[in-house]
C-alpha cells in the first residue's frame, strides 16, 4: 500500500516540478537563471556538502560514486519540498516575496553487490524577475520605461551509476539531460504600447564523473575522500518571438507572430570538486567540500556583465547519540552547516557572492526503520548594496522524505 501510494505521489509530482517557478530575484535575468541549490537526504542541513558522503540509506546527488554502497535488494526513493521567504533591498526600497515547490524526485537501486543505479528529476536553474528599465528617447531628453518580466528555467533528468573498482575505491558516472524554457516579456510605452514575448528553449547533455576512497579506520575514525569532475558542455537554444503594439485608440497590431530564431549556445564550464568526510565513533560526522567552476574559460559576456570563475566552500557536521540501537530518540540526527559561494556573475565589476547557514534534524519514520523525515532551515544572503546593486536576504525551509524499501524480494509461498 505504501509503495502504491508513493508511486502515485511521485508520478503526480513530475508535472508540478516541470512547470514550477521557485525564485524571485533580478539576478536570474542573466544567463539561464540562478542555480538551483538542491540536496537530497540530510545534506541540505549539512551546508550542501556530500562529495565524500557514502551512506547506503541515502541518495547523494553530489557524487555518483556513492551508488556503489547501496545494499543488495534495497530500493531508495525520495522526494523533497522547499519554501523560501526572501527580501530584496536596494539603497532606497525593499520588497518581500514567498515561493514554494517540489524540489526533486529521485530513486536508486542496486544492480548487484557493489554496483548501483540512480534516476532523478529536479530543477537545474530557476528564473523569476520583474524589472523596470529606464531608456532614453533618441534625440530627446525624455525617457520611457520598459517593464521586463521573466519566468521558467531548465530542468535536469539524470541517469547515474556507481560501482566499486577495487576494495575501498568506487567510481561513478552521471549523465544529465538538461531541457526547459525561459519566457520573457517586455512592455514599453512610447506613444503606443509595445509588447515583445520571447520563449527561449535550451537543451543539452552534461557528463559528470566521481571517485570515493575509504581510508583505513584509525582510532574509531572512518574517513572517506571524494572527488568529482564535470566536463564542459554547450546548450543549444532556439527562440520563438511574438510582438504587437497597441495604439492609443486601443487597436492591436501584430508586429511579429511566432518568429523562430536560433540562439547562441550557452556554455557550461569545466567543474571539479573535492571533499572529505569523517565519521567519529559512529556518532559525529563532519564533511568539508570545495568546488571550482571555470566560467572565465567559456568567454561569454552580456552587455556590461561578465562571468568569473566560481568557488564554493561548504562545511557540515552531524551528531547522533546512538546510545541504543533500537531507540527512536537515539537515532535522531542533528545537523548544522555553512556554505559560501563566490558566484559566477560580475556586474559593475562586482562579483555577486552568497552564503547561507543551515540547521536540520533527521527524524526516523518509525522506531526500527532507516526511513527518515529530514527537515532543515537555512538563512542566507546574496548580492550587495554596493555599486547600486541589490541584496537578497532569505529564509528557506526544506522537507525531504527518504524511504528505504525492499522491492526486489519475492514472497515465498508455502
UniProtKB/TrEMBL annotation:
Official protein name in the record? Aromatic hydrocarbon degradation protein
Q: Which superkingdom is the protein from?
A: Bacteria
Amino acid at each position: 500500500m505504501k509503495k502504491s501510494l508513493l508511486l502515485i505521489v511521485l508520478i503526480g509530482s513530475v508535472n508540478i516540478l516541470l512547470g514550477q517557478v521557485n525564485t524571485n530575484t533580478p539576478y536570474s535575468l542573466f544567463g539561464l537563471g540562478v542555480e538551483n541549490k538542491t540536496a537530497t537526504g540530510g545534506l541540505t542541513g549539512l551546508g550542501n556538502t556530500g562529495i565524500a558522503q557514502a551512506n547506503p540509506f541515502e541518495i547523494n546527488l553530489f557524487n555518483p560514486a556513492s551508488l556503489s554502497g547501496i545494499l543488495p535488494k534495497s530500493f531508495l526513493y525520495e522526494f523533497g519540498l522547499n519554501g523560501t521567504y526572501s527580501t530584496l533591498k536596494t539603497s532606497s526600497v525593499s520588497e518581500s516575496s514567498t515561493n514554494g515547490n517540489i524540489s526533486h524526485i529521485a530513486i536508486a537501486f542496486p544492480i548487484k553487490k557493489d554496483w548501483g543505479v540512480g534516476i532523478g528529476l529536479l530543477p537545474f536553474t530557476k528564473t523569476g524577475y520583474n524589472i523596470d528599465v529606464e531608456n532614453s528617447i533618441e534625440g530627446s531628453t525624455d525617457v520611457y520605461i520598459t517593464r521586463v518580466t521573466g519566468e521558467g528555467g531548465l530542468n535536469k533528468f539524470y541517469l547515474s551509476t556507481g560501482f566499486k573498482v577495487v576494495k575501498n575505491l568506487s567510481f561513478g558516472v552521471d549523465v544529465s539531460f538538461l531541457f526547459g524554457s525561459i519566457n520573457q516579456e517586455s512592455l514599453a510605452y512610447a506613444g503606443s504600447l509595445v509588447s515583445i514575448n520571447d520563449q527561449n528553449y535550451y537543451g543539452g547533455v552534461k557528463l559528470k564523473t566521481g571517485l570515493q576512497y575509504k581510508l583505513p579506520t584509525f582510532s574509531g575514525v572512518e574517513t572517506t575522500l571524494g572527488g568529482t569532475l564535470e566536463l564542459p558542455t554547450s546548450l543549444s537554444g532556439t527562440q520563438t518571438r511574438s510582438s504587437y503594439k497597441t495604439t492609443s485608440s486601443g487597436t492591436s497590431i501584430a508586429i511579429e507572430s511566432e518568429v523562430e530564431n536560433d540562439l547562441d549556445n550557452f556554455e557550461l564550464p569545466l567543474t571539479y570538486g573535492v571533499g572529505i568526510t569523517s565519521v567519529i565513533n559512529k556518532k559525529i560526522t563532519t564533511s568539508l567540500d570545495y568546488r571550482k567552476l571555470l566560467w572565465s574559460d567559456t568567454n561569454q559576456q552580456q552587455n556590461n556583465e561578465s562571468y568569473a570563475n566560481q568557488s564554493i566552500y561548504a562545511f557540515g557536521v552531524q551528531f547522533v547519540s546512538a546510545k541504543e540501537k533500537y531507540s527512536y530518540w537515539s537515532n535522531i540526527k542533528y545537523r548544522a552547516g555553512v556554505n559560501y559561494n563566490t558566484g559566477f556573475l560580475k556586474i559593475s565589476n562586482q562579483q555577486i557572492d552568497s552564503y547561507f547557514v543551515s540547521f536540520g534534524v533527521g527524524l526516523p519514520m518509525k522506531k526500527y526503520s532507516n526511513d527518515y523525515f529530514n527537515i532543515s532551515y537555512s538563512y542566507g544572503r546574496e548580492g550587495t548594496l554596493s555599486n547600486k546593486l541589490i541584496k537578497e536576504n532569505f529564509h528557506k525551509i526544506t522537507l525531504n522524505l527518504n524511504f528505504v524499501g525492499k522491492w526486489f524480494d519475492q514472497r515465498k509461498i508455502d
